[in-house]
Amino acid sequence: MLRNFNGFKTDKSKKMIQETQHEGQSAARQNAGVLIVGAGRVGLVLAMDLAWRGIPVTVLEQRRRGEPPEVKCNHVAVRSMEVFRRLGMAEKVRAAGQPDDYAHDVAYRVSAVSDLELTRIPITGRRERREGAPGPDTGWPTAELPHRINQIFLEPLLFEHAAAMPNIRIVNCIEVSDFDQDAKGVTVHASSLDDGAELHFRAAYLVGCDGGRSMVRKGIGESLQGDAVVQRVQSTYIRKPKLLSLFKHRPAWATFSLNTRRCGNMYAIDGKETWLIHNYLLDGEADFDSVDRDRCIRDILGVGADFEYEVISKEDWFGRHLVADRFHDRSVFIAGDAALRGWADEAILDAYVAERQPITEQVSVFAMNHAHAMAKARGAVPA
Length: 383
Ligand SMILES: Cc1cc2nc3c(=O)[nH]c(=O)nc-3n(C[C@H](O)[C@H](O)[C@H](O)COP(=O)(O)OP(=O)(O)OC[C@H]3O[C@@H](n4cnc5c(N)ncnc54)[C@H](O)[C@@H]3O)c2cc1C
Description:
Blueprint: E1 7-9, H1 26-30, E2 34-37, H2 41-52, E3 57-60, E4 75-76, H3 78-86, H4 90-95, E5 106-109, E6 117-121, H5 126-131, E7 147-148, H6 151-163, E8 168-171, E9 174-182, E10 185-192, E11 198-203, E12 205-208, H7 215-219, E13 224-239, H8 243-246, E14 254-257, E15 264-268, E16 274-280, H9 293-301, E17 310-324, E18 328-329, E19 332-333, H10 348-379
Parallel strand pairs: 2-3, 2-12, 3-8, 5-14, 12-19
Antiparallel strand pairs: 1-11, 4-7, 5-6, 9-10, 10-11, 13-16, 13-17, 14-15, 15-16, 18-19
Helix pairs in contact: 2-6
């Protein structure tokens, strides 16, 4: 029999860490529980996958329950949809996001509201998918086609589904600061963002799903290899209900503006009134502050100075091609799914790096090459 691991407030009068039992036995250790830092997409999906395999999981997240994520990811790939299907939530995900009849097309125009549409990739929206209409991404031998949904809609669904699973405990308002590991497992040190109390958690394994600035990654002493800057992007999340009525062509999920004033792209977020606009800095532009965000947005949209819009949030970010040189140190991992499966021998954990690192490198190279190709296309617009 195993006891679950728990978080304890520091109590100097007694030892505050609850140890798991049966340490040293491989199967027992794998079932003694996993701590995950970060309830973003990766942390929540990993938690559900482990819980689905009968492994108890605690997820520690600094955000408050219900606090929305940043408006970043807009696309869910086939493989992720297949995982959602296995977890019993693919329908929920597909039903969320934009309205039923909003096209998932990618449109290339001179500007978002321009008369001149250069070309378009027609991609079936939710209703057409349901009706089995063919499209450029429907030929996959899969039960679940990709879906377009922003993470502000996706993540609450993941959270709700994960929180309802019996083997998962999600603890919000916890900032993890450090960890130690020994032969028996990992001790995580954290503080409550509600009252500042020191907390300590003990588990057999720790997985850092704590995003780009990962504390866990630094804790295992990895370094990042690759190109620190591939592109620089000013992203602005705006609200403008009237924009939809200004389009001269069928609305699209992604609209690329190609012109001599400012190239950029825009994603429809709710399919009604909210939009995410990416403005790519040019080589000669020194930094984010030297670029007139508002003017660039107007050029990408193709609207004049009298066009009013609300800025909901903004983020300046670097596209990078950086891959960690190590993915785990003994019982601590920085992401993954196959690594912690309950049915396998512990030796499978060593395969994690061999399996994931080449894939991570491939994805990173693909993203970098795509960014270079798009920058070249933007730069090739004739004057
Ligand atoms: C503009 C933009 C567009 C993108 N578009 C796409 C796309 O279309 N498709 C796609 O697949 N990807 C896209 N991405 C990438 C995608 O957003 C990320 O890969 C994804 O969000 C990473 O998920 P994650 O769960 O690993 O990390 P995050 O989403 O960053 O989540 C990390 C979580 O950990 C928590 N956390 C961090 N540190 C601590 C700590 N010390 N203690 C407790 N909690 C902590 C954070 O609060 C957060 O909730 C895009 C990225 C950007 C910037």
